[in-house]
């Protein structure tokens, strides 16, 4: 097993590598199965520190790579068209009180159509979310539905089975992959700073949040970046009106942030 930052992943050009991906790997039980059964590279994506702590001991001898990054961002900005051969999303958070925060919706299905050249496997125990997932995929002309059985025991399959609850399984196959457009995440960003306060374009919002002034001409500026399925606050150093991204945790940046250095979308 190896742990990768998003920056390391992009620097090694792994966005162009054929792969199998699980988003939200939990305790790593299903990811362990994938590592043993798949012939191509396997990646696990999650944002939970708890999941990483639980999965690392189980996966330490497995041929799998773990990346701490948002699943939507990973699919859209860190994978060239068609490089994801199989994508697994088992029991995604249904966000019953805030359904707008759900990962799987029409926009995400549209992105999957250009990133996944094979199959998308989904499991959920939430009836309303299951209906929304099926509607989003079947209303797309890119996918058709097949049966699937989940034989690997995981944290949630054991939990729901012990409670006598059923869950819904989906296997959506891309019927004719033809994705071409790919504007990858930026490993870093620097250039002459444009004093941007607020931008709204194509469902993307960029808003200046705070400025921290240092000595003489130095300052730190933060921006809230948001699109339908993703939001994050990014920090930049400004010195003599020259901007440099501060991705100190190995994060990468959405390409839209080029507007901060006059680069356009």
Summarize it.
The chain is α/β, with parallel strands linked by helices and 265 residues long. It is 24% helix and 32% strand. It contains seven helices and 14 strands.
Number of domains: 2
Looking across the biggest beta sheet, what order are the strands in?
A: 1-4-3-2-5-6-8-7
Q: If you average the pLDDT, what whole number results? A: 93
User: What is the approximate shape?
Assistant: globular
Give a verbal description of the structure.
With 265 residues, the chain is α/β, with parallel strands linked by helices. The chain has 2 domains: 2-174, Vaccinia Virus protein VP39 (Rossmann fold, 3-Layer(aba) Sandwich), CATH 3.40.50; 190-261, no CATH class. Helix content is 24%, strand content 32%. An 8-stranded mixed β-sheet has the order 1-4-3-2-5-6-8-7, sandwiched between helices. The protein has a 6-stranded antiparallel β-sheet with strand order 9-14-13-12-11-10, with no helix packed on it. β5, α5 (106-115) and β6 form a beta-alpha-beta unit. The chain starts with a strand and ends in a 20-residue tail after the last strand. The mean pLDDT is 93.
Task: Fill in the keyword field for this structure.
single chain; 265 residues; Rossmann fold; 2 domains; 6-stranded antiparallel beta sheet; 7 helices; 24% helix
